[in-house]
Each structure stands twice: as structure tokens, then as C-alpha cells.
Amino acid sequence: MSLSLMAFGSVQSANPIVPGETWNDTRGARINAHGCCVVKHDGAYYWFGENRSGMTSMGVSCYRSTDFYSWENLGLAFKTSQALDPETGKGTLERPKVIYNDKTGKWVMYIHWEDGTGYGKARVCVATADNIEGPYEFSSTFRPNDHDSRDQTVFKDTDGKAYHFGSTDMNTNMNVALLSEDYLTTEQNPVTETKILLGLQYEAPAIFKVGDIYYGLFSGCTGWNPNPGHSAWSTEIMGTWNTGENFTVDNEKSTTYRSQSTYVLKLDGHDNAYVYMGDRWNSSNVETSTYVWLPLSMRSGYPVVKWLDRWDLSVFDDADRFKRPAEIVSGETYYFIEANSDRFMSLSNNQICLKNDNEAENMQLRFVAVEGKQYTYKMQEVTSGKYLEDLFGKTLRLSAESDSESQQWYLKQNEDGTYRVCGVTSGNCLTVSGSSTSEGVALYLTEPDDEKFQKFGVYFDTYARPDEAVADMFSAEYRAANRQIMADQEEYEAGLSSVGLVAAGSGMNISSTGDGMVIVDAAGVDGMVSVNVFEAASGRSVCSETFPGGESSQVDLGNCVAPGVYVVVATASTGSAVEKVIIR
Ligand code: DGJ
Predict the structure, then answer these.
(1) Domain spanning 509-583: which CATH class is it, in words?
(2) How much is the pLDDT for 542?
(3) Is any atom of ligand 1 closer than 6 Å to the C-beta of 279?
(4) Cβ neighbourhood burial of 552 (10 Å; 0-12, 13-18, 19+)
(5) Class level of CATH domain 322-496
(6) What are the tens digits of pLDDT across the range 373-396?
């Protein structure tokens, strides 16, 4: 049996979803439904897509499935002949998307409409039906608020409002327009719209929402030829959209696995079960173009689509296993997951690298809070008992426990809940080697750099600790709490590096190297200088030193104090200098 026959046509075979192969319907005919959307309704999935005869647009197909594998052809839900241009007598329908209007009880289909002679009309066609599978009746064609609109989709928000997303200004920008209450046109009272992702030339929008956050997948603009995928997100649908990374992370990510995005479907039954849907176009015969459907993970907080040769829905069985904790508890074990690749920090053949979830290689780390410091942990690799160590700010290694600060790691908070994981000695942070995030890529340390992949989420195994509180990582509250932590950290870090708070006229300056060495500069002072060190929290005096002024002198507080926050007071005949110092 050829591979193509095994795809969908014979559902009995394991892993029936074979991305990029020809997929057959329940009657053995090639599925003809491109630029699709899939809608779940009353226990069944409905797959709508462009029906083509060669290059010719025939209408919008509808297929139905109850298991997601075997698809029954219900015929054309809407025919191109229902929306012909009066002058050319032709029409082209692309990228149909269907949503349900709760107020009118109608199914509403938005389609990119052209007059059958090219892409100059750049309009949408709207059609409606009483039943999901149709038949759909022609409603109108128009340019959304007079904007040219080519690749397009519609997104229905959780509050029932719906939005049209269309590539506009000759595919330069993406226009987002609120639809009217009946979804049949764009809202006119007042016109509510915004242009996003300005100048980026994105096509192929696929919009979805997780918690309070909107996500979009897009392609670049290269006709039928594939290009690197793009992601973007926003906390407000009409607000500023942030550009994300290429959502594909494996071989052929420069062509989105030879596909172009069209839809993201959330599956029921798991939190983290999404399906990426794309088209692998055949530009000389669109009818024979194939479908690239792959699991999409939101576990890392960003959309990540990994390549699989073939798969079935059991890939989602453990999709919700690893979650972010509501808070990190000292003494507990955690895992790091890199945000762009959704891959675990792993230990493979003694290499610290990124790998897919794999019980034997996922690096399980016991976090131990460092006393007297905030946001700072030692991390003990559970299998070996060794500690993660920063070697010269470059390399990661596991070593027997020591008192060295090279085994201490500062978790620098990001708004999305991930961290920059930075060594206390070097300040350098966990980084993915190069720009590749593919399976097995090495991890090492580099300077903090926004352009590099340095975002790591902390996760725990919910199978091992089912009662542990989970972070609500897609909520507005979570982001607000993280922003607060960021502000607190800024203050904390300012304290760590604070220098030179000089009491007026004392002629002295106290500075800290941050690692236990405090320098009292009394070069301009005659006579004796006495230095007193007080514990900041209790005011308890912990040590004192006296030295002659007129020269620069160093006092090593590491000898008399443990890590913590202290107030250093230097007093001479000229007055006193006071400085807050943190010993790390
Ligand atoms: C890219 C679009 O995404 C497709 O839907 C189709 O319109 C092609 N361009 C036509 O070149």
C-alpha cells in the first residue's frame, strides 16, 4: 500500500494524519478543500475549503468527520457560480472561514473574492446559512471599509464580537475590522478598525485566542511559494500586535515545512491541544495541493509547531502534563522549557541541550533558594546530584556542590512569565546555540541579549505533583503580577549595584563590587576613619574597622558578614558617608 493511500483513506492504520500527503475522503476521492477552516459543531468537525478543478475555483467544499480522520464529502456548501462578477462572468473564492452568529442564528461565511481574472478586485464575499453544512446563500461582496482585502480570515471573540483580518494596502499591512452585530458587513457606527503589523507584508492569517491573549500565525508574501512562518500576539485585538518568532522550529522551517498557514483549531479535552492547518500549494494545479496539519503547542506561551512525519490525536495525551507552577518553592524540582522551541533543557550524552519531552533526558532540577539573596537559586540535577555551574560565563556544567557563586543562578523575570537564567558570577545567561532551536541544539551562556533565545519557563510535572497550584499563564493577572516582579527586581538589582551615596561634605565615597568587597575611598580625609557595618533588616552592628584616611583603602566585608543586605557607615572628622551594600 502506498503511503498516500494510507493517509486518511484507510483510517485503521496507525497515525493516519500524514502531513503533505494526498488525503482521501470516505469514498476514496482526493479531499479538495484548500485554504481551510475546521469548525466543531454538535460533536462533529466540519472542514470548509476552496474546491478547485485544476486552477479553476468551483466553490467551497464541506467535509464532515466525527473522528478527525475520516472525512465525508458533503459537497459544495457555496458555489462560485453564486458569486460571479457581472462583467467577467467569472469568480474566484479563496480562504473561506465560517463562524456562527448567536444573535441571528445564522452561519456566516467570509471568503476572499476575485473576479476570476487575477487578484485586482481584492474583496470579500459573505454568504449565510441556517445549517452549518449549508447550502450558503450569497449575501454580498465588498471591500472591508473600502480597503483592498486579499488573504483573510474571521475571528469570533469570546464576547461574541467578530473581526475580519485582511491583508491590505497591496499586502503591506493587516487590517482588523470589527464586524456588524449580524456579521454581514463591517461595523459602520462607528467604523471600528485598525491596521496592525505595519509594513510587514504578512499573508495567510490564522487567529486564535488563549486565555486573555490573541495569537496570530501568518506567512510572508511570495505568491504560491512557501516562506518562513511568522507569529504575533496581542493582549488587545485592536491594540498593538507584537511580532513573535517563526512558529516552525524543525528542518524546513524556512518554508514552514513547505506550507502556508490557514487556520488553527483548538481541540476539546486538553488545555494544550491545537492543530496547525496549512496548505502545501501546487501552483500549477491548486486542486492537487496537499494539507499540512500538525500539532501546535502553546505550552511555552508561544505557538510552536514541530514536524511529525505522521501522527494521530494520541499526541495530545500528555499535552497537559508539564505546567508552570503558581510559585517556585525552594526544595522542589522543576524543568526548564525554552519558549521558542517548546523543548526541554535536557541532558543527553552528558551534553546540556534542548530536546523534546523525553523522560530519560529531561533535566530535572531541584531549586534551592540562596539564603540572603532574592530570585537566586542553586540547581541540583536530580539524577547525578550535581549542581549546575557557570564555567567562565560561557559553558554550563554539572559539578559537585561547592560554596562558589558560580553555582548560583539569578532568575530574571519576563512579563510572559519566562525567565532569563543568568549566572551570578558572570551575569551571562542561558542561551540557545545559534538561531537553531531544533532537537538537540546545545545550550550555553552569553550576555543578556534580546535578539537571542534566552527565555526559559519553569515547569513541574503535574503527574508527580497533581495538587500543586498552576500558574494561569494566559491571564491578564499573570502578566500584571509578572510586571510587578520585574519592577521589584529592578529595585533589588539597583540595590545590588548601588554606588557612591555620599554624605555631603564627608569627602568619602563607599562603593561595592557586589561580591563582598566594599571600597571605602577616604583619600581626601585626614585622620582616622572608622567603618561600621550594620545588618539592614535588624540594625545590628556586625563588624567594624578603623584605618587611616588620606589614602584609598579596601575593607573586605566578606570576612565578617554572611550574604545579605547591609548598611555601611564610614565616619571621619569631616562627617559620615552611608551606603547600602548587598553581599551576594
Ligand atoms: C498566496 C495566498 O496566500 C493564496 O491564498 C493565494 O492567493 C496565492 N497567494 C495566489 O498567488
Answers:
(1) mainly beta
(2) 79
(3) no
(4) exposed
(5) mainly beta
(6) 999 999 999 999 999 999 999 999
Residue 463 contacts residue 321 (beta carbons within 8 Å): yes
User: Is 472:542 a contact under the CB 8 Å cutoff?
Assistant: no
- For the Cβ of 34 lying below 6 angstroms from any atom of ligand 1, the answer is no
Whether residue 50 has its Cβ less than 6 Å from ligand 1: no
CA of 235 to the centre of ligand 1 (A): 29
Nine-digit cell at 470? Answer: 498552576
The radius of gyration of the chain's CA atoms, rounded to the nearest angstrom, is 30
Q: Is the CB of 122 under 6 A from ligand 1?
A: no
Domain ranges of the chain: 34-316, 322-496, 509-583
The SS3 assignment for 551 reads coil
Q: Is the CB of 416 under 6 A from ligand 1?
A: no
User: Is 343 near ligand 1, meaning CB less than 6 Å away?
Assistant: no
For residue 223, how far is its CA from the centre of ligand 1 (angstroms)?
5
What are 179-238's pLDDT values in tens digits? 999 999 999 999 999 999 999 999 999 999 999 999 999 999 999 999 999 999 999 999
- Give CA 340 to chain center in angstroms: 6
Instruction: Pull the grid cell for residue 488.
Output: 521589584
Give the class (CATH, top level) of 34-316.
mainly beta
Residue nearest to atom 9 of ligand 1 (CA): 223
